[in-house]
Amino acid sequence: MICSHVSFVACIVVYLCTVSCFDSKHSTCRHQTSLLASTSTKESAEDRRRQSRKQHDPLISLNLNLDAMAQNANGPVAQEMLHRIRALHQEGYYDVSPDTVSYNSVLKAWKEDNNPEKAYEYLQQMLKRDKTIADVISFNTVILAFAKKGNYRKAVQIIKQMEAREDLPDPDTLTYNALLYALAQSKDRGTTKQADELLHEMIEGKRNVKVDTTSFNTVIHACSQLANKSNPAAAQRAQQLLNRMEELAVGGNTSVCPDIYTYTTVIQAWAKCEQSLKSQKVLDAMTLKGLLPNRFTYTAVMSSLAKTGMAEKAETLLNSMMLAYQQGNDSLKPDTVAFSSVMDGWARLSHVDKPYAAERALSLLDRMKALDGDGMGPNARTYTSVLSAVAKSGTWEACDKAREILRDMEYEYDKGNKLLQPSSIHYNAVLLSYARSPRADKALKASSFLRTMKNHPDPQCHPDIISYNSVLMACANAFGNEDLKRKSYMVAKNIFKSTILEEDNIRPTSTTFVHFCKASRRLILKTPLRMTALQKSLRLCCRKGMLNHVVVLQAQLACKTDEEWHLIAGEVSKYVAKDGKLHSAKVPKEWTCNAGR
Fold it and tell me: What is the band of 13 on the pLDDT scale with cuts at 50, 70, 90?
């Protein structure tokens, strides 16, 4: 790249290509380069360039080096290298001057370095130096840099400059696709709608560019991100865009043919809305088009099936993927996410009436462990699902089994598997197994396990309000002889007191009051004491702003007569109808202001 006889200058270029940053020696290197140039005046610059051409194409070498730096997200080095090469060219030590590709590589380096401001600053320097240096790729690169951070406002600003100024390149399809991506990446409200509107303008030709598959896929992805059970309209819009793509493709516009990503994203949107039939319908349409689903497609369908209570079908699909992979189809190799989607399905299905679901979850966990070496091993989410399945089964063995699973998880984590780091989520699942257990001593066992959480060396495993509420739930469902009920109530009373006093920054919720009121009515055997406890709890609930109809219901269930109810409820009884429902709209707001917590 540099004339062979100028060894020191060659060292500079090698240095620039191999290091990741520059230090205070920069000024010394530049001084020595200028000094070398001043002592070589007897040899003309053209002679040096001619010698360089004999070696190899210097511009290709430069651009390859700059592109390598861009790939490594090394903006500072790429910019410094181009600056030095430009100076060397002016002094006659480099055969050619950097071209547009060279400058675009620097912009790309800043983009990959997640520094859009530097990319924009460098683009302005390019325009100031020579407007012909920058092309539409230059602008698109900077727009994408801002898009990666969801800064659509800056992307819009740059595009408006391109549209308004005749001395700048016209925006092309990639330009507007970059803006669509910026809008899709933004967390601001309404940006998906803006992206949809821009796509419509592109389809109608109002932006003087051709819409393509990427344009549609970007907006479909944005819609999919918004889709959920309470917002099926977002999934429906993704479906409509897919239908529009199919219409355009049938009409001869091959630039907007739906691809695997398109169909998979729409399937994911319906899966989030727990619409498994619609997910399956999109999958069927995809295969009819001759497109082969990949593991992401099948995982999306499995997730949809799992969320709608069809764990068996989800696992059948997983088995089909596994068989195809074993027969040589690497694109259908299931991963941990695929297995975990099925595991989540069994966890959702698990219930005291369906204990087999927990057994299937455990069987799937064993299967994943056996496949750990092939990239299909369990992770923390997997253990969350299997613990939840076991806890919800409500069997006698569930508590011990949940603790065994947690110990296994901690053992693997201590051995170095960082994907299995336990947290309070996993510990809370064990507490839930106690709360749902048919064991009479569940409250005492849950209280003991809570102490284990408090003493855990990892803060991530310390209890939260869900932990405390789970112990209270265990107390509320406790039973047994008089002594065991008394001990269970004392656990509930101490836990409740801790939350009211907000010890360890644990603040109560409405659920806290629901479980404590239920524990009070079921475990306090003497009527006067029971009524006093419920009366105080209800008043405290109002003061905390956590009154709701479930708390009221627990107090009502403790009363045998209207007289008892009025005595316990006091002022609250004025806002409860004859059918027992709380008139939320009429209740003082200070009583319910925190009820959603």
Answer: very low
Give the contacts of 590 (CB within 8 A, at least 6 positions apart): 542, 545
Nearest-CA neighbor of 434 among 424, 421, 447?
447
Query: What is the sign, positive or negative, of the torsion defined by CA atoms of 309, 315, 321, 324?
Result: negative
Q: Locate 540 and state its tokens.
A: 């405290």
Region of poorest pLDDT, from 89-103, 135-149, 575-589 = 575-589
- Amino acid found at 447: S
Residue with tokens 């006889």: 5
User: Cα-Cα-Cα-Cα dihedral of 10, 12, 18, 20, to 10°?
Assistant: -170
Alpha helices in 19-115 (DSSP H): 26-38, 45-55, 58-71, 75-91, 100-112
Distance between CA atoms of 329 and 45, rounded to whole angstroms? 59
Element (H, E) at 292: none
Please give the DSSP secondary-structure letter assigned to residue 169: P
pLDDT in tens, 228-260: 999 999 999 999 999 999 999 999 998 999 999
Secondary structure tally for the chain: helices H, strands E: 30, 0
Indicate the SS3 state at residue 582: strand
Q: What's the pTM value of the predicted model, to 2 decimals?
A: 0.76
Contacts of 5 (CB under 8 A, 6+ apart): 51
Distance (Å, whole) CA 498 – CA 34: 74
State the residue for tokens 């693997």. 412
Residue 494 φ/ψ, nearest 5 degrees:
-70, -40
- Give the amino acid at 425: I
Q: 3-class DSSP state for residue 351?
A: strand
The Cα-based distances of 539 to 169, 327, 530, 555 in angstroms read: 70, 67, 14, 11
Distance CA(62)–CA(77), nearest Å, equals 13
Q: How far apart are CA 371 and CA 99, in angstroms?
A: 52
CB 213 within 8 A of CB 245: yes
Contact predicate 275/230, CB 8 Å: no
